[in-house]
Design a protein that fits this description.
By secondary structure, the protein is of the alpha/beta class. The chain has helices spanning about 10-25, 35-45, 60-70, 85-95, 105-120, 155-165, 175-180, 190-205, and strands at about 5-10, 30, 50, 75-80, 100, 130, 135, 140-145, 150, 170-175, 215, 220-225. The chain has 2 domains: about 5-120, Rossmann fold; about 130-225, Orthogonal Bundle (Arc Repressor Mutant, subunit A). Strand 1 (about 5-10), helix 1 (about 10-25) and strand 2 form a beta-alpha-beta unit.
Length: about 230
Amino acid sequence: MSGRILVVDDEQPIRRALKVNLAARGYVVDVAATGEEALLLAAQSKPDAVLLDLGLPGIDGVEVIRGLRGWTHVPIIVLSARDGERDKVAALDAGADDYVTKPFGIEELLARLRAAVRRNKPVAETPVMRTESFIVDLSSTQVTRVDGEIVHLTPIEWGLLEHLVRHSGRLVTQKQLLQAVWGPAYETETNYLRVHMAHLRRKLEADPSRPRHLLTESGMGYRFAE
């Protein structure tokens, strides 16, 4: 896989190491040491993905994410020594696609990068999501089991499932789900999510205690896996 990657980090050894490893795998790499430089380079070079540190001089990483999300859907993977839940949620809510805590293994980072770039490639819009257990038809707002039996969902359950399916493979934060399903005034009512996700799993998962499709990212949000 090849493409153009923007690496944003104020530590020169990390910028150099990432540039060498990415270039060795066929990527074209641009580097920036500040948030201001990152926004300028992103506008000029139109990267296929951004690897972004949060602790930058001047504009910090979260502000860079917000600046990028004002005009582009480019995948953004945060690389940060900050491993607190609040920092992760702030970056994801701002629009980051993934979060990797320093120190990190280069192979894991590359795998996450490939996955983010794949997800961002334009694909034909399909209203149907199929798993080995059930089928979600977004156009008819209906879920059926593979044997054809209709699964009856409440409007809230359907709203949660639809939002997760439309962002399949991506982490959707608790705040994003609450606002998408209940409205912009709802940000902290995470107990709503726990209750309704439990109901969804009982209806859709073969083993609700060990879900395969409706996955929890502890303290952050949920992810739909095909």
